[in-house]
Amino acid sequence: MLTSRRALLTLALAAGLAPSPVLAQRAAATARAVSFGSHPLQTLDLYPGAESGPVLLFVHGGGWSRGERSMVHDLPAYATRHGLTLASTSYRLVPEVSAREAAEDVAAAVARLKRDLPGRPLFLLGHSAGAHLAALVGVDPVYLGAHGLAPADIAGVILLDGAGYDATGDRGPGIVGRALDRRYEQAFGADAAALSPTLRVESGRAYPPYLIFHIGRRQDSAAHSRALAEALVRAGGRAEVAVAPDDSHRDINVGFGGPGDPEGVRAARFISAES
């Protein structure tokens, strides 16, 4: 029972920490830092890649309060194998800001890449809290609208075991639910409904297609992933939900895009089909 509780707490709080600071530093050393604002965290790393074709922008997890854009794990090699240009963005963190300002930063990173790499399809890839931010930017027109863009200007959104799709809903029982209560209060405050992607979907808007992964052992993640997909489909959009049955919350992030990783393979097919 103790092991199970530790695993569940990791799902709620760990949000995919880098397996090795040395590996993270080596990966970041190959990238070029690009600023999109005056705050130090308003910066993205742009990795060497193809001169044409899709751009993949990664949004790290960390419960909205921590994490690093260097936590790209296998993504540089994955991007190279599939002819993608990889970028990974930071964003301002709780408690300095709320999830609203973090989403504003993700949208600003998108706008900077659209300006610097014009005409290339751009895909968002987010894990955990980063999946929430990617989902929100892909749904709510306010964020990209501040830069003269719209959600439909994103070619596709790929989500890895996210949280907060409906921050007003069930957060699960026991230790996980209590941990998420604290995280959500810090990140959303009184704006949980306004910052919930599922609740921001409206008919009559054009949305990018969504590929939504969740791990098999998280029933709350499964329910929230399905609800987001169903809202998008009801509104005339396209969304598919896929389960990663053998992964943990950390594993789906750390292993994504590695050789033989089924989620990475499926995402590559999605990117190819939507480019």
| Quaternary organisation | single chain
Biggest sheet, spatial arrangement of strands? 1-2-4-3-5-6-7-8
**Mean pLDDT reading:** 89
* Rg (CA only): 17 Å
Instruction: Give the amount of beta strand, in percent.
Output: 5-15%
What profile does the largest beta sheet have?
A: 8 strands, mixed
Number of helices: 11
Task: Provide structural commentary.
It is built from eleven helices and eight strands. The chain is an alpha/beta fold and 275 residues long. An eight-stranded mixed beta sheet has the order 1-2-4-3-5-6-7-8, sandwiched between helices. Helix 3 links the parallel strand 3 and strand 4. Helix 1 packs parallel to helix 7. The longest helix is centred in the middle third of the chain and has 18 residues.
Helix and strand layout, with pairings?
Blueprint: H1 2-13, H2 21-29, E1 32-35, E2 43-46, E3 55-59, H3 75-81, E4 85-89, H4 99-116, E5 122-127, H5 129-139, H6 141-145, E6 156-160, H7 174-188, H8 197-200, E7 210-215, H9 219-234, E8 239-244, H10 249-254, H11 262-274
Parallel strand pairs: 3-4, 3-5, 5-6, 6-7, 7-8
Antiparallel strand pairs: 1-2, 2-4
Structure at a glance:
With 275 residues, the protein is of the alpha/beta class.
Features:
alpha/beta, single chain, disordered N terminus
